[in-house]
Amino acid sequence: MATETSLEAGTSAADVRASEVEEQMTDEERFSLLVSVMGVNDVVTVRDDRIPEGTPMSAGYVPGVERLGVPAQLMSDASLGVTNPGYRDGDSATALPAGISLGASFNPELARASGRMLGREARSRGFNVQLAGGINLHRDPRNGRNFEYLSEDPLVSATLAAESINGIQAEGVISTIKHFSLNCNETNRHWLDAIIDPAAHRESDLLAFEIAIERSQPGAVMTGYNKINGDYAGGNGVLINDVLKGAWGYPGWVMSDWGGTPSWDSALKGLDQESGLQLDLMMWKQVWFTDQLEAAYAEGKLPKERLSDMVRRILRSMYAVGVDRWEPAPEVDMAAHDAIALETGRQGIVLLKNDGALPLATDKPLKVAVIGGHAQVGVPTGCGSSAVLPPGGYAEVIKIGGPGVMGVGRNLFLFPSSPVAELKKLLPNAEIEFDPGMSPAESALMARRSDVVIAFGIKIESEAFDDPDLSLPWGQDAVIEAVADANPNTIVVLETGNPIVMPWRDKVNAIVEAWYPGQSGGRAIAEVLTGAVNPSGRLPITFPLDLAQTPRPELAGMGTAWGTPTTVEYQEGAEVGYRWFAKTGGTPLYAFGHGLSYTTFEHSDLEVDGGETITTTFTVTNTGERAGADVSQLYLTDAAGDARMRLLGFERVDLRPGESRQVTLTTDRRLLARFDADSGQWHIAGGAYKVALGKAADNLEVSGETSLSEARFAR
Ligand code: BGC
User: How much is the pTM?
Assistant: First the structure.
């Protein structure tokens, strides 16, 4: 099913058809397309009678217009699999690793494969809109939704999100991209005003959206819950009308987040659809795009042209992606989909530290102590709307809870892929014992009698909650400290959705960040620990030493009751993550792009060409004794005398021992430019530009220089 590639609204076959069909609609039919209702789940317990009998329950339902052949919209979450938060009895689906794990793979092909998997599984259930494409930048290491998102870097986020969206839409399912924009903290998210300099916004979060939208033409954009510079995202005329639809010419439709429509006049600010209206009713005691919007229309406050435009945008995305011409759904090969989840888990694992402890010797009768993390049961996953019920169900659900609407879904969900069981398969000669990590003293007893200790550190993250700090919960730091004191041959395996601080870092021999590794995550972890898989993940987010190094040591609103109006100043502007560290000169715990391998790589022969943009060619060589994957990273370090760091390009390269490959990277010019808010244009200052190639933002090996001509351009 081919997707329509025109970004020029009004010019494609899909636009023409959308206009023709919209013209034939009654106003009642037009209005019926502008609201979605939620199916019954843990939060919404009364079935809305607008949902016809037999319709599969999901996050959103919008009726079709049968007489005109317009299909109903059936919307399901999200980026990590087709979710089922109590909607459909026992309906499980492939559960991918966290988005941050896909981010760590730096692998666009894997992103596309996971998108295709999502599209197929959505389609096989009749869902034609996948609420995927989470792309908010990791601005704050406490953000409870960082695990769903890809990276702190706009280029990495855009590249991977675009491929995932392309994969979904290639299966004839519309994908959203979300949450537009600056939904970068969860604390009091419905009352949160995110303040940013508009030009810096264009160079960071908005640039990620801009590039991803250009590369994938998602049928819909979902706005965030927060305000941006004083106006709610769902009714932000500057962002929706001026930037998204105006400057970028976005032709698809803009839907609110669930319970995130601030007013009927959001329609005038560019919002085309109110989502999950039961949540608006619950949160704000209001539904906007039904009676209120109709009244505004009757009074002439909502022009007829705008009503038509709202409807046409929805229709044109349906036609462009092809949800109106579905053939019978393709077979779903769950084994092949599990392989995608497994491969993402593997490629997302980042080896942070290795003082020779890894890989584990597979031929020795090692005494191995596995400590904590429920590793005898399975692997954790994140909570909230992205949580997927895996095939066979959860191995265990431990209720956590918390304040607010989303507290009910905050659990320790364990997928049934046990690292202990998988280690036993790969270490047949070892004697493996498990200790639950309940108390430092008890865990130390087992550590002391073992040859090697594998201590797990887990932390759950959830939509609607930010972390108060970067420590591991439930006393796990004390347990790790105690086992490392008892046995220095300790390997720490982290399953977290965010960076953490590591008070025990110098006492342990190896540290592995596995994130939430998905439904086959236990196997992926065991394979990396035993060397069956050579680790190749790289950090898509900076691990700070502590919060004092970050732009907001104190997070506004932290500790206030759910519902407290909160203002977060993103005063770092576009200097997010590694860019902030480059600007402030801090040394992080682990830098963006960092990740070790069981082999070694070298970069050489860097050639840098300038002119309109920067094009580089270089050679990467596997100088070690194992096959492995390098992620070559090219950074801008100085732009015509303005020292600033920008990832200009990256390439994941699989190499056999001794093998070399030549790589060419051409830079998107916006990464070299500054955005001039007054003229609405990008500006490249003419002059000398310095770049550096390396293995991490703090590990640059080869540098080069070229010159660029001055330029101004709109896109
Ligand atoms: C989330 C969205 C999600 C929606 C529908 C909201 O709580 O923020 O990402 O798509 O719910 O379930």
Answer: 0.98
